[in-house]
Structures are given as C-alpha cells and as structure tokens.
C-alpha cells in the first residue's frame, strides 16, 4: 500500500510513558493532517509500546526494535 503523504514525521522513543501521550496528542492535532507519523521504539521496558498501540490512527506506523 502506497501513501502519498506530504510530510513524514519520525519520532524515536525509549521508556517515554510519562510524556508520549502528550507528544502524540500534540502531533495528531496539528492543522496539517497530510502526514505520516513513524514511531521507532528502541525496546522500551515500561508501558510506552502499549500506550502507542492504543492509538488508532491510520497515519501512525509503529516499529518496535
């Protein structure tokens, strides 16, 4: 499946459960909606991945390392 987003945002994260929701909410509520959000998690050991997986937005792609 090929998406033609105008912008790709890459977000790296590691053990960020304390701030990741605020970060995602801010990104997803931008006035520009034609973007993809690629999140790279580097093996978090807290609830970061679970929080990321709870977002149901087709613009989000989560990669867990």
Q: Keywords for this structure?
A:
23% helix; 3 strands; 2 helices; alpha/beta; 65 residues; 29% strand; single chain; three-stranded parallel sheet; globular
Rg over C-alpha atoms, rounded to the nearest angstrom: 12 Å
The percent of residues in helical segments reads: 10-25%
Report, as a whole number of angstroms, the end-to-end distance. 22 Å
CA-based shape: globular
Number of strands: 3
SSE ordering: EHEHE
- Poorly predicted runs: none
Sheet/helix structural class: alpha/beta
Biggest sheet statistics = 3 strands, parallel
Give a quick summary of the entry.
With 65 residues, this protein is an alpha/beta fold. The chain has two helices and three strands.
Structure description:
There is one protein chain. Helix content is 23%, strand content 29%. The protein has helices at residues 20-28, 48-53, and strands spanning 7-13, 35-41, 60-64. Strands 1-2-3 form a three-stranded parallel sheet. By secondary structure, the protein is α/β, with parallel strands linked by helices.
Chart the SSEs and their pairings.
Layout: E1 7-13, H1 20-28, E2 35-41, H2 48-53, E3 60-64
Parallel strand pairs: 1-2, 2-3
């Amino acid at each position: 499946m090929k998406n033609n987003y105008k912008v790709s945002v890459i977000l790296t994260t590691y053990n960020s459960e304390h701030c990741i929701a605020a970060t995602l909410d801010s990104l997803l509520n931008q006035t520009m909606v034609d973007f993809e959000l690629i999140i790279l998690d580097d093996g978090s050991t807290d609830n970061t991945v679970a929080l990321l997986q709870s977002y149901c937005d087709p613009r989000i792609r989560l990669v867990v390392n």
